[in-house]
Predict the structure.
Amino acid sequence: MLVVEQLSKVFGDLTAVDGVSLAIPKGQLVGVIGRSGAGKSTLLRMINRLTDPSNGSIVNDGQDITALKGRDLRLWRASCAMIFQQFNLVERMDVLTNVMVGRIAHTGFTRSMLRSFTDADRARAIQALDRLDLVPQALQRAGTLSGGQQQRVAIAKALVQNPRIMLADEPIASLDPANATRVMEALREINRTDGLTVLVNLHTLDTARSYCDRIIAMKAGKVHFDGTPEALTTDKVRAIYGTDTLGDDINEAVTSTSLQAASSQPPKQAVGA
Amino acid sequence: MTSVSPAIEQFELDYAAARKSALRMNFLSSAVFAICFFAAAWIGGFFDMTDVTLANGERVSMWKIWAGLPRLGEYLYKTLPVLHWDTLGADLANWFWRWKVWLELLIETILIAYMATLLGVFGAFLLSFPASRNLAPNAIVLNVTRRYLEIVRTVPELVWALIFVFCFGVGPLAGVLAIGLHATGALGKLYSEANENADMRPVEGIKASGGSWFDQVRYGIVPQVIPNIISYTLLRFEINVRASSIIGFVGAGGLGQEIRVAMSLQEYTDLSALFLIIFVTVILIDTISEKVRHRIIGLTGKGV
């Protein structure tokens, strides 16, 4: 169980995350939605401790995450794998090494500097790549792969970290629909098979609806909605995204990354209309 | 007249204002540049006059640069050897009469440059990361390493050489240390700029996986900057060869001591011979290092 209590982050005058409290049971696949700048990324980055919270606490299975330092902090980051919108791989390095870097927190200084990972790490990395159908690309430079493949490399890297939680910060925002589907399928498969808690920031409502057990909507740094996809009605969506200025309903098919949604739905159809 | 939307009208106004202020800025900076240029030229003695005696014995005041130019030709003319086609072999042998000594010193010169470059690369590579604004763990480390790099590169090689000759005596050791120290400062600056231009996303990726600062640098930065580092290093080697060929002026080894002797004994043809040797060496090293550089940058297979 991951428990977030009154978590806040202030950047200068801006309160990016404002007193967020959440309890996420083990094994849940949670989608976080909201407008750009609503504080979704900051929330995820604070959980991984890439960003230090200004206030509040994060507790995972009784362990206080907010107070971690040094080696403990690095081990927490490893056990709470993060996937980024821009993949954040080392593009000039081969795919296999990029995945093995997932073992960095458990690798000693000398081995790390010499780029000499253990055979066990190599085996683990190649198994993770196999799970994501990327073994043929293992020796290619990561930068030569397509966006979808790079994101799957990032997931493989996250897997070898042997994480308890997986955080994905808009993992499909830079991908085409086919690749987006593959990446979301991979996240769901990991969630179901390994029982990992997955927190994923999404821009596309229909993706959140079709993949997530639970949806959390943020608005201006606060949690505005927290419940099942079914409970997220059109009125609530309108309130979250503040479409009153647009004077129109939100059309989920417009931003959809689902292949069926794009082909079978007439483009003008509004949600729940 | 076609009706224009208010947004476009507003844009036209803003655009005219922006252009006007850009023009004013251009004019102002041109004026400042011109003033600086003339001030620098004035202080540098570009407008000085000098008295010269003409062929008919008349003394006139003349622009210094104009008066001095013929003397440059005179000096260069003196360094030219006398070569005749029928006695070419003997003339050349006469011109390069000390070739055995010079060859030995040339090898010493290149070795000094090589050793100094190695030392410089070692120090600069290690110090460039704490000296990068985006990587330094805190402001103290950043400022201490930056100031150190500045100090060692601000002091010219010749001054370091004087100090090291005083400490370690006459010989190539002083030259190696002097050029190596200066190269550390110069390369450290270039390397750290390459680091600062690196994409920070991979660094964040390593950090998010639990990598330490060293891991972040090793995997996030080093593979990105390696081509730059190689390129700057080879360039520095070329510069160091030139530096090590004059460092002998103060007794720190290499061809420089011969140049000094030739100058003080007014052996003008020796000077041209030495200049030719250095010139050919530098051209050779330039060409080879350019080839190597392109080869290595082309070989982007694995990254390091």
In short: The longest helix of chain A spans residues 177-194. The CA atoms of residues 80 and 165 of chain A lie 5 Å apart. Residues 261-273 of chain A have pLDDT under 50 and may be disordered.
